[in-house]
Amino acid sequence: MRYRSLIVSVAAALCTVAASAQAFDESKYPDWTGQWKLGPPTKWDPSKPPGRGQQAPLTPEYQAIFEDNLADQAAGGQGTDPTYICIPDGMPRAMNVVFPMEIVILPNTTYIMIEYLSMLRRIYTDGRDWPKGLEPSFMGYSIGKWIDEGATGQYNLLEVETRNMKGPRSFDPSGIPLHKDNQTVVLERIYLDKADSNILRDDITTIDHALTRPWTVTKNYRRVRNPIWIESICSEANPHVRIGKENYMMSADGYLMPAKKDQPPPDLRYFNQPKK
Amino acid sequence: MRLQLAALVSCAFVATSGAVLAHHSFAMFDQENPVELEGVVQEFKFTSPHSYILLEVKGEEGNTAVWNLEGPAPSLLARDGWSSQTLKPKDEVIITIDPLRSGAPGGSWQSRKIKFRNGQPIAVAP
């Protein structure tokens, strides 16, 4: 009797899987398999030099924050780049794809798995609306829509909107800041190059209160077939330490080293102080 | 701590070279004043988010300092043919680094700027 009920359960499960498989017509979706690499240098707009050369359309308030950040970095600090202590890139910076990404297309969700920091994006394509009361996250909440541009009979464009991010975030290592209110909206158009199916393009438009206008850049990722994948866990051996507002580095023998010239040691007020 | 350097190399160096491989700002490392170190590998850490070489370097006065040298992530090194076994303790190497601005024994390095002391290149993927 017990075996009979097990057989019925397994059969029911298989029927469910078969039904799902029938519902997902792979031929309707583009072939985005393999590994997608962007490669260095890591900067937000690939078409422009890093730092000030990016010509980020920042408001005067956030341009001043960016300049202070550059001055701090020039002295050996980290400015407004939070990632040195393993805070993830978040969106939109994750699409710098420091290390390669893989895209898995399923009927209701497209997953973007980024090797760097093991970051995962879920893009819901099941027609849902924005959820209410959801806690913000670095990667945000993404809703996408498949489009068959040119009525080819196959989807060839994924439009994505991402909201509900948390901070701190910056666009790239030069510290170009996003607004502290975290009201960022990121719009993407992801598609294969028409002349070369081994190039994936992502037109990314960022709308943010730190910017005077929407900022659009295009990332061009190159496909690698039969790739290797490497685990990337940021906390494994990160020697960079933030104490108060200062960043330090661990020495070979496990002690704190200054990162900046003439940097003061950390405040030890909660430790027993040697008597003078 | 004063830098104990085997040699000082040219300052004519592309300032952004270290940053291009970095996930975070590498401004703490002085990319405009690289230095060449000659030393013995104490440990090679093939770890994330960066690899590390702990390098024993003898100073001019005979004292030894162990430098903590931050390098590319395994994600980059592995694609250049490196593995956790590429460098072993007691290997003697010559390496050009961007030193910490503070003068403490730390810095950053790249795979194309290191070789064995006998001049042998360190193996990379074909």
Structure description:
The complex is a heterodimer of chains A (about 280) and B (about 130). In chain A, a hairpin with a 6-residue loop joins strand 7 (about 185-190) and strand 8 (about 200-205). The longest helix of chain A is centred in the first third of the chain and has 22 residues, at about 1-25. The mean pLDDT of chain A is about 90. Chain A has a nine-stranded mixed sheet with strand order 1-9-8-7-6-5-4-3-2, with no helix packed on it. Chain A has a three-stranded antiparallel sheet with strand order 10-11-12, with no helix packed on it. Chain A has helices spanning about 1-25, 60-75; strands at about 35, 100-105, 110-115, 120-125, 140-145, 155-165, 185-190, 200-205, 215-225, 240-245, 245-250, 255-260. Chain A is α+β, with helices and mostly antiparallel strands. Chain A folds into two domains: about 35-235, no CATH class; about 240-275, no CATH class. Chain A contains two helices and twelve strands, in the order H-E-H-E-E-E-E-E-E-E-E-E-E-E. Chain B has about 130 residues and is mainly beta. Chain B has one domain: Beta Barrel (OB fold (Dihydrolipoamide Acetyltransferase, E2P)), CATH 2.40.50. Helices cover about 5% and strands about 35% of the residues of chain B. Chain B is built from one helix and seven strands. A five-stranded mixed barrel of chain B has the order 2-3-4-6-5. The longest helix of chain B is centred in the middle third of the chain and has 6 residues, at about 75-80. The radius of gyration of chain B is 14 Å and the shape is globular. In chain B, about 40% of the residues are buried. Classes of the chains: A alpha+beta (about 280), B mainly beta (about 130). Chains A and B meet through strand 11 of A and strand 4 and helix 1 of B.
The string of secondary-structure elements of chain B, in order, is EEEEHEEE
Structural class of chain A: alpha+beta
Strand order of the largest sheet of chain A: 1-9-8-7-6-5-4-3-2
Q: How many structural domains are formed by the residues of chain B?
A: 1
Cα gyration radius of chain A (Å): 23 Å
Strand order of the largest sheet of chain B: 2-3-4-6-5
Number of domains of chain A: 2
Q: CATH fold name of chain B, please?
A: OB fold (Dihydrolipoamide Acetyltransferase, E2P)
Q: Largest sheet of chain B at a glance?
A: 5 strands, mixed, barrel
Mean pLDDT of chain B: 82
The helix content of chain B is: under 10%
What count of helical segments of chain A does DSSP give? Answer: 2
